[in-house]
Amino acid sequence: MTTEQPYRELGLADDEYARIREILGRVPTDAELAMYSVMWSEHCSYKSSKVHLRYFGETTTKAMRRRMLAGIGENAGVVEVGDGWAVTFKIESHNHPSYVEPYQGAATGVGGIVRDIMAMGARPIAVLDSLRFGPADASDTARVLPGVVAGIGGYGNCLGLPNIGGEVYFDPAYAGNPLVNALCVGVLRVSDLHRAHASGAGNKIVLFGARTGRDGIGGVSVLASESFTGEAGRKKLPSVQVGDPFAEKVLIECCLELFTAGLVVGIQDLGGAGLACATSELASAGDGGMRVDLDAVPLRASGMTPAEILCSESQERMCAVVRPSDVDAFMAVCAKWEVTATVIGEVTEGDRLLIRYHGDTVVNAPPRTVAHEGPVYHRPAQRPSTQDALEASTPDVLVRPSTMNGVRATVLRMAASPGLCSRAWVTDQYDRYVRGGTVLAQPSDAGMVRIDETTQRGVAVATDCNARYCALDPYAGTQLALAEAYRNVAVTGATPLAVTNCLNFGAPTDPGVMWQFEQAVLGLADGCAQLGIPVTGGNVSFYNQTGDTAILPTPVVGVLGVIDDVRRRIPTGLGNLGDEVWLLGETRDEFGGSAWAHEVHGHLGGRPPAVDLVREQAIAQVLATAAREALVSAAHDLSDGGLAQALVEACLLSGAGAQIALPEALEPFTALFSESAARVLLGVSRAHAPRVAQLCSVHGVPVTRLGEVHSAPTLDIAPLDSLPLSDLRAAWTATFPTLFGPW
Amino acid sequence: MPRVVVDVVPKPEILDPQGQAIVRALPRLGVRGVRDVRQGKHFELDVDDDVDADTLHRIAGELLANPVIEDWTVRRL
Amino acid sequence: MPRVVVDVVPKPEILDPQGQAIVRALPRLGVRGVRDVRQGKHFELDVDDDVDADTLHRIAGELLANPVIEDWTVRRL
Amino acid sequence: MSTVRIGVITFPGTLDDIDAARAVRYAGAEPVSLWHADDDLRGVDAVIVPGGFSYGDYLRAGAIAAHQPVLRAVRGAASRGLPVLGICNGFQILCEAGLLPGALVRNAGLHFVCRDQRLRVETSATAWTGRYAAGAEIVVPLKSIEGRYVADSATLAMLEGDGRVVFRYLGVNPNGAVNDIAGIASADGRVVGLMPHPEHAIEVLTGPSSDGLDVFRSAVDAVLGSGGQLLGRRIPSKMW
Lengths: 743, 77, 77, 240
Ligand SMILES: Nc1ncnc2c1ncn2[C@@H]1O[C@H](COP(=O)(O)OP(=O)(O)O)[C@@H](O)[C@H]1O
Ligand SMILES: [Mg+2]
Known about the structure:
heterotetramer, A: alpha+beta, 7-stranded mixed β-sheet, B: alpha+beta, 3-stranded antiparallel β-sheet, binds adenosine-5'-diphosphate, binds magnesium ion
């Protein structure tokens, strides 16, 4: 028996600590304790989510795996997209750090996901960011949002990665718990796929990139696994990491040159849990053990303990496994890019992770027990009793505009609402042009980049999640998020191929939260199985709550699609004069969780819109053929704000006016603001109308001909009075500058 | 009118990429002997006589500096 | 090791939007009496003893400051 | 007619070099990549200093890159009339290196600004604008946070007086630049710097227009001599 160790302060439970002693057969050293504590934290071990996430794998059929070269468990999923190209993409959260220090938190969030993509041997080619904040007019939102946006731009722009999409949502539930989810897309030749594993005894472990300092020591275990308690909570947080985007840009070019030269056996990024994570994961995934000498690690601060060196979250670092014969060549490439690189150890026979410092052995553990065989919890999950009341409080009771002028005024009011207004204030701070491959970016439904200049092959990506739907029914709500991202990709003419996700939830120790989480996973997995596209990776962020109020369940879904020829993409804005304006899909009276209920009545209740993935798929097929045969001049998905918002955006994006007659069957208000899913707005030339109509009937997609593009600069929606585009534009664009300052 | 100077520097444990970039650039100018550089911000405020020390420290701590990652000093000229 | 401080400020005739933004933000903090703010850069250099004044002025004038838009001061602590 | 070879310099942190090289190809010339550490220009006929964040734009945009060996070579060649184009960060570097007068500072609005920007081409009498009619209006992307051009009044008077303001912002002034200046030229019209990105406006598929392509075509003309020497003489006269 020995003196008490501070394992609780490190976030370890009594039984977890007991298990560490059992594994080691002795009292752990400080370094071992630190290493296990960060690696067994929720963030690194997925101990509360593991049992649920397995379901993604279980529901992924052989057919769905056909194009999948790497999936869940790797740094990022990889799918084959044709012409010998593969694409990797992943979304990750950096929520808590972005609340503590918005600029650096968001910036390092981008840096982290980009390194994940590099760790697959890919060149990063684009980023997206999915953001959630408290009320748009809250003073803390005025602190957090501008900082987060500047941080994402400051880092991403400096890396030379075009920002091609994302989301901005506001809800009181995110006050004190903003969500900052960053997605990165990368490309590689199918033959160049790299994996994170240390194999081949005698191979060297090379640490390269930035020096190691006291950045965010314990950042992961504390920042990502303890919820805030207001001011006090903010104070006790450890120092945040500061990003160096220039160092990361150089690191990217350096890595790519190393890959091309074939100098890398295995590679791993350093993110949360730093070296502790990189070394144990590399060794655990490999076929041997590993010996690491901490004295060789280049330090930025003096007097760092082994535990600190292992857990430091200094940014812009990578770890590679290199054949001894390649070390000199490896170092030469690093020298060219002025990147610091050091051999810190080697792959060994046997199955121990041995870490030495000043001649002492500070870690001697089986790597699997650190990296992959951490604790697993079956947390109790229980549908909250409040859920019935929430469903019972339907939006039917909400007062709807009684006059046509009232409906018309609502169109303008909704266009100006923080949830639906133009995001240009945000997206104009992001470089969408760099690399010269951006074919579609905000405000298109999905971003699209060309990946091959000779074949013109490209990929499209969108992220979506209406968390209000998820609050009403996490299973259906998550399928609606999937459906929307899938639809956003489909309307560009691309074919959806794969899914990534970032599951943002409250504390897993709350059975109600755990129920939401479980339902979300089931919904997403079942939905993907139905659509035939696999979940290739993702990220879980728990403890997004202040006190015991959790955020809305927010499973952000990212969908990736491929298009053989980007010149065939479908634009979002209504273009050609005289083109017919069609609505695909059916509109029902569905206002549960709608933007109208939220913005106008601050109401959340009832059922979310019905999910119809068969219809979503049919629409996607129509659009893919329409794109291939160049049949449609515009396509825009209907989502938050319904038909009214889709029409406003489709007109404002191109500056074209339209003459619309609403179908008699519905109240104008319902036709305009209902949020029924599986609907798309189309622009179709008269010449192609018959062929498109035939396609729709073949695929069983209902068509409503709404009207046509006219020459007047107005959106005329009979029976409403005409809406001048200038008024709509003023309403749509003024909100963010008014809230967050002009520039 | 009194002039007040507030100097803001990154905390010692915080990475200072700008300072590091300068250290690396100096040899190319043929300059030797500069061991370390920290880059911070320098503010010059013209204030009324009745602005007291507490107010100045509030301004520095809440607006000019980011206490999460920066230290600051206030001095009257 | 000697410490040298270089302060760099935008020339008076150059518009300083950062300083102006601070002036505008102060009332929101409930602070009155700050008439003007100029934002510049503050550098702290650790140098060997043999680094002379000329060298320091070269560092300031050729790298740390851009004479077209900025003035600077060098002082040893 | 031998193909024109146009150098594109890459510094650590340069981003738009691949785009500049693409634009050079689209203009029918051969891009030659030049590394910041080299001090020879490999006999190229013209040089582009592309956009990005060289050395992270730490300290000041372009400040550290301006001291790199390759800039010495560029300065020498420019003094002998080699056409040089600085785009965005490249413009900042040329100003920091003293090849062009004035400086570029933080946008008046403080934010990074990415937008499709209307510009007026003020003169066709430079090595990079011969293909445009003076007064032509074009749309090219602008994406920068230190894009506000400033210079003392004497320098401004000289630039305006000698017709060395090459590009001017139209409609919105996106960063508070003096006299809406988006780009300027050296006295002999061979060295041009501008904040907006013509290399991102060479095809409508990936840009707001193809208006930028003629910048690169103009350089090819200038190299092939169609009015190449003329330029030097035409510059001072204010025919616009
Ligand atoms: N934080 C952001 N970063 C980048 N692009 C964004 C961001 N927020 C919104 N966008 C873009 O603005 C446009 C409108 O956003 P949104 O209304 O969420 O689109 P949709 O409803 O089609 O999902 C989309 O092109 C989206 O990609
Ligand atoms: Mg959508």
